[in-house]
């Protein structure tokens, strides 16, 4: 089975971009379509409907406006249901999952509805760790507003790197995903960044991006394949002890006490009568550690060694030390 996951920062609200979103759903046929910066307040829900899809809204709609919504295909929402317990009430996160896979869409974790930036960052990455705390495939996609290559020395960049190392996540998106013209002191210039990410623990997932004229953010399209875990069952025989009571045992012994056979044979005949065998089905457990997980663990170790050799960790420590000296001065 292949899942199509598409995310897009529509930049300016979902109501003015609904035609572009409908065209995107027709062209890509996504199972999950995450739209960030939606600014959805709960009104005009009927106008935003797309045939064949159910509209889910982030919990922040209860605080005013939801900046993240998701169109989930009707034929998939029962197989991979929504996981409300992993989202929180003040974060723009929408999560779906079952025992095999977990899909999450996010939007700017450090710009939550309430709280300070540091508090929001800690809550956001705590939620990220909770989403990754299962043994199946995981994909977290959306506008993080964090460029892994540019923001490595910042607090949010370090937290993102630590989260990826801890949960064996890799970023599938390496290209520029946002282009905008900014007005600086020396005039206008083009600013490019990669802040729309696709983080996963599955090396077989494919991801691509393509630009559009409706927003300064690209469409992000991921394809994740996974096999349904099928537990093998086998038939075994167990004794049925429902009739094995003290009264029945005493009555049975009293009947045969005069012609008592050998003790072992008598016990067997007693059990066969009062606790006969019946056939049940048992489920054989599947291995949690499989060759694919071992491969991911080795890749994580190699990435961590490469990260340490690159010197980014030391440069980050020097930056922290210099800032402390500046504060003391």
Task: Give a verbal description of the structure.
The protein has 329 residues and is α+β, with helices and mostly antiparallel strands. The chain folds into three domains: 228 residues, Endonuclease/exonuclease/phosphatase (Deoxyribonuclease I, Chain A), CATH 3.60.10; 51 residues, no CATH class; 40 residues. It is 30% helix and 29% strand. The strands form four sheets. Strands 3-4-2-1-13-12 form a six-stranded mixed sheet, with no helix packed on it. Strand 6, helix 2 and strand 7 form a beta-alpha-beta unit. Helix 2 packs parallel to helix 3. The longest helix has 20 residues. The radius of gyration is 29 Å and the shape is elongated.
Note the quaternary state here: single chain
Q: What is the count of structural domains?
A: 3
Q: What is the CATH topology assignment of the largest domain?
A: Deoxyribonuclease I, Chain A
Report the major sheet. 6 strands, mixed
Radius of gyration: 29 Å
Low-pLDDT runs of 5+ residues are none
Beta-strand fraction estimate? 25-35%
Estimate the helix proportion, in percent.
Answer: 25-40%
> Termini distance?
60 Å
What is the CATH class name of the largest domain? Alpha Beta
Question: In which order are the strands of the major sheet placed?
Answer: 3-4-2-1-13-12
Q: List how many beta strands DSSP finds.
A: 15
